[in-house]
Amino acid sequence: MRGFFPSSTVAIYMARLFLVRTFAILFALVLVLQALDLLSESGKILAVPGNGQAEILRYVSLRTPQIIARFLPFSVLLGTILTLTQLNQNSEIISLKAAGLSAHQVLAPLILASFGVAALSFAFNERVVARATATLSSWDDVDYGPMPVDRGERTNVWVRDGDNLVQVARVAGRGEATRLRGITVYNRDGSSLRELVTASRGWREGGAWRIDNAERFTVATGVRERLGSLKIAGGVRPDQFTLQNVDPDGLSFAQLSTAIDDLTEAGRPTKALEGALWHKLSGPLSAVLMPLLAAVAAFGVARSGKLFVRAVIGMALGFTYFVADNFALAMGNLGAYPPFLAAWAPFLLFFLIGEAVLIRTEE
């Protein structure tokens, strides 16, 4: 290990430069992007009676973690390029190579520091971003009105029963203990609405759903009548209500893994969610790639006039990785790529590209 880091002083110096620039760029990006986002959303928030400065600050506290998580890898890329460009301009890279250090040894402090950034990013996503995303999604669902009390319930769930549609305002519990609140059944003939059946509550009974205080509105006659208690939706399983809406961005790694297991047990498709689960690991690790992709800016003589071109090439490699990563995730969601490949293929591909460029040009 000491052979890979011949000088602890130089390693600490380079890591400090890298971290300071990375987080300074992240702070500037978050400040600008949060201001722009607030300009588009503040009107919607303040349009709700009773909302004011407190609600604006609440929105900022929920939206800022999402922006940080999304743009941290970009900040690592730009921070690496600025660090390596400065070291190159000051001939510090040349001094390190003249002392016998290889290109990998020059980059080693930055790569080690980026591992720390990746670990911090993963922990931040798990503890802060997932919760903020889930809360902001629930608030957005009520158009920034009074925040619903989170009791582990699912809201505004839609399921299909043949041609009929069933909407439930709130779903609580799991399995045979599932309870429904605010039920609306849209009975249809093909695509034509025939009648609406509404009920205040419902529960599982005898392979169907017993609803209470039911009323029926017949579209053709305009007649409304009370039905009392009756059974509906015999073809709808409990998991169709409880596992209907799984937002991978609003769940931690462990919670998403549990949701995938439940969906698999219920025989539901999980490929897109499995890709999102793997990406919760590969996403933060993208920070480790950035020093390797930006390394082209570190080497070459600064006085040759090609330093700016090298920095642009490093930036282009980094941004191409993000494009490829988003493309692979989209293909995974469509089922064109296996989940593991959708999450990890861009990372492995650009790792090999970065190594090939570094070895061919400097080693």
Characterise the protein shown here.
The structure is a single chain. The protein is α+β, with helices and mostly antiparallel strands and 363 residues long. Helices cover 59% and strands 17% of the residues. Strand 4 (192-205) and strand 5 form a beta hairpin. Helix 7 packs parallel to helix 9 (339-362). The longest helix is centred in the N-terminal third of the chain and has 39 residues, at 8-46. The chain is elongated, with a radius of gyration of 27 Å.
Order of helices and strands: HHHHEEEEEEHHHHH
Number of domains: 2
Question: How many E-type strands?
Answer: 6
Rg from alpha-carbon coordinates: 27 Å
Instruction: Tell me about the largest β-sheet.
Output: 6 strands, antiparallel
Pfam family, one: LptF_LptG
Subcellular location: Cell membrane
Keywords: Cell membrane, Membrane, Transmembrane, Transmembrane helix
Transmembrane segments: 12-36, 67-85, 106-124, 307-324, 336-359
Structure summarized in a few sentences:
The protein is of the alpha+beta class.
List keywords for this structure.
alpha+beta, LptG/LptF_permease, 363 residues, single chain, transmembrane, 2 domains, membrane, 6 strands, 9 helices
Secondary-structure topology with pairs:
Blueprint: H1 8-46, H2 53-89, H3 92-98, H4 103-141, E1 154-161, E2 164-172, E3 179-189, E4 192-205, E5 208-218, E6 223-232, H5 238-242, H6 253-265, H7 271-293, H8 307-334, H9 339-362
Antiparallel strand pairs: 1-2, 2-3, 3-4, 4-5, 5-6
